[in-house]
Amino acid sequence: MSGPQTPEPTLSVQGDSPMGTRDEDAADGIQHSHRMLSFSDALLSIIATVMILPVTHTEISPEQFDKSIQKLLATRIAVYLMTFLIVTVAWAAHTRLFQVVGKIDDTLALLNLACMMTITFLPFTFSLMVTFPDVPLGIFLFCMCVIAIGAVQALIVVYAFHFPYLLNPQIERAPHRALYRQHILRIVLRGPALCFVAAGFSLFFYPLSYLLMAMVIFLPYVSKASSWCKGRLVGPQEPPVHSVEFFTFDLHEPLSKERVEAFSDGVYAIVATLLILDICEDNVPDSKDVRDKFHGSLVAALSAYGPHFLAYFGSFATVGLLWFAHHSLFLHIRKATQSMGLLNTLSLAFVGGLPLAYQQTSAFARQPRDELESVRVSCAIIFFASIFQFAIWTTALLQERETLQPSARFGGREHAFMFAKLALYPCASLLAFTSTCFLSRVSTAIFHLTQIAVPLTFLLLRLLVRLASTLLRALRGLARPAPGAEEDVRAPLLPSTC
Fold first, then answer.
1. How far apart are CA 117 and CA 113, in angstroms?
2. Which alpha helices (H) appear in 26-68, and where do they start and end?
3. Euclidean distance between CA atoms 91 and 88, whole angstroms
4. Of 43, 47, 149, 488, whose CB has the highest number of CB atoms within 10 Å?
5. Can you tell me the distance from the alpha carbon of 373 to that of 69, in angstroms, rounded to the nearest whole number?
6. Could you give the 3-state DSSP secondary structure of residue 385?
7. Which of 29-33, 320-324, 338-342 has the lowest mean pLDDT?
8. Any bridge partners for residue 333, and if so which?
9. For the chain, how far is it from start to end, CA to CA, in angstroms?
10. Rounded to the nearest 5°, which phi and psi values hold at 126?
């Protein structure tokens, strides 16, 4: 079985090859889908990221301060993570869909806009879910949006198969296109079908609706696990004569690395932008307050917001360095497998929560106990955002010949540096969290010190890794003297696999 083809190479081949009669038939109003896909990726990354806004901008009433802030935030973050992941499921389905559709016309472009319009309504329904968690209307509307998204995507499939010249050449030339259409429609409509059931249960027993919505996220992985168990119990079976599993629309195959990078870059860019929105909204002094409280001194008024600006710069540095680590990681990745895609989605979900981390470290400065809990929440968000990046790299190492460039594999010259770069933030955030358990009175100082120290460490990281590698080689040479042996100057930080 040859590796799955990403849509970009397929489309370029399609554009370069002579099209003959099909070019003449499709000359009017037919175009490549590159620009529309870029627009869709940008919009989907924005929608997935702004899901955090209802959490960060929900006012906490005074009576809620008597409850555990951690429990309150944990509930809201859990709902946010679920909705973020559902949006990424819609993005993945959109990516698979346009691996099938190679070209678009005006009708397909308008159908895609209808799909995007429905997706842009999701943050409003999520706001209702956060503000009124015991009222089923928010859950019902969210499920109806997902159903509408699936219905529009199904219309795109039906329309594209009705006009085969819009399809990927591999599908267009297939003698059994009906099998492809049935296979794709089944995958597109599985999530909306679950949400239809969840919408029904939301009117009677809404906790079950949350469980069904969570199943939408993990359904492809449950399907893969059940197929693996069936193969173990029943044994390998002969594939059907006209199998469609080799095509990359199959959810078990990797996504396009280029679109994964584009979607991820969009999430990081929007998160970095959301940070300054809080500064502009909450930290611009009122002219009357400047006159009355600070005797007309704008400098004195701005100095009162010093901790907020410190939290902003620290949060922006965190977002920027996490993007830098992500960029470095995918620079060495050849192919993104399904498990790597899931880990990347989980990392992005916590990256999307970084505006909450900024809001928490700057909003409860006058509440010592709440400040401690807020700092711990922030450390936890940063830890999970970075540890899933580290997990992507670890997963890639398990299949390094297929997934990694030679320089990042065991023994490669960049292996030790990538290990240190991706392990820095998990270690720093875990250390900061642990320190607050013993030094709770200076928890904010510890957190801000970590935000300052980590960027400085990044600047010196390559030098530190080289020094550590030299020291390890020297110690290894002392412990194992071999006069005629040649030492590998690119020795890895971790031992090579057997």
1. 6
2. 34-50, 53-56
3. 5
4. 149
5. 7
6. helix
7. 29-33
8. 404
9. 26
10. -65, -35
For 257, the token pair is: 């690395």
Q: List the one residue out of 276, 271, 296, 277 whose CA is nearest residue 285.
A: 296
What six digits make up the tokens of 133? 């968690």
Neighbour tally for 52: CB within 10 Å: 29
- Best CA proximity match to 164, nearest among 99, 96, 102, 113: 102
3-state secondary structure at position 173: coil
What's the CA gap between 278 and 351, in Å, rounded?
17
Nearest to 486 by CA among 473, 471, 468: 473
**CA dist 214 → 63, 82, 396, 397 (Å):** 31, 6, 26, 29
> Which residue would you say has higher pLDDT here, 384 or 102?
384
Q: Where on the phi/psi map is residue 105: left (φ > 0), alpha (ψ -120 to 50), or beta? A: beta
Residue 48: what are its φ and ψ, rounded to 5°?
-60, -35
Q: Return the structure tokens found at 270.
A: 């929007």
Q: What is the pLDDT of residues 225-261, one digit of tens each?
A: 777 676 677 765 554 544 443 344 444 455 678 888 8
Query: The tokens of 51 are what?
Result: 């899901």
**Residue 19 identity:** M
CA distances from 217 to 41, 75, 90, 181, 309 (A): 19, 18, 10, 23, 37
* Cα–Cα distance, 353 to 357 (Å, whole number): 7
Q: At what angle do helices 338-351 and 69-100 cross, to 10 degrees?
A: 140
Give the span between the Cα atoms of 386 and 391, in whole angstroms: 9
Q: How many whole angstroms separate alpha carbon 147 and alpha carbon 230?
A: 30
How would you write 196-258 as a 3-class SS string? HHHHHHHCCCHHHHHHHHHHHHHHHHHHHHHHHHHHHHHCCCCCCCCCCCCCCCCCCCCCCHH
- What is the per-residue pLDDT across 169-212, written as a single tens digit (0 to 9) for each? 888 787 778 888 888 888 888 888 888 888 888 888 877 888 88
Cα–Cα distance measured from residue 11 to residue 292, given in angstroms and rounded to the nearest whole number? 64
Closest of 233, 264, 258, 445 to residue 345, by C-alpha: 264
The C-alpha atoms of residue 58 and residue 76 are separated, in whole angstroms, by 10
Q: Tell me the CA distances in angstroms from 66 to 61, 366, 368, 369, one per residue in order.
A: 10, 15, 14, 11
CA atoms in the 13 A half-sphere facing the CB of 321: 25
Cα–Cα dist 163/181, whole Å: 12
Q: Which of 340, 345, 336, 339 is nearest to 256 (CA)?
A: 336
Which residues are within 8 A (CB) of 192 and not within 5 positions of it... i.e. 6 or more apart? 146, 147, 149, 150, 151
* Distances 327 to 47, 95, 113, 318, 409 between C-alpha atoms, Å: 22, 21, 30, 14, 17
Alpha-carbon gap, residue 341 to 252, rounded angstroms: 11
* pTM, rounded to two decimals: 0.74
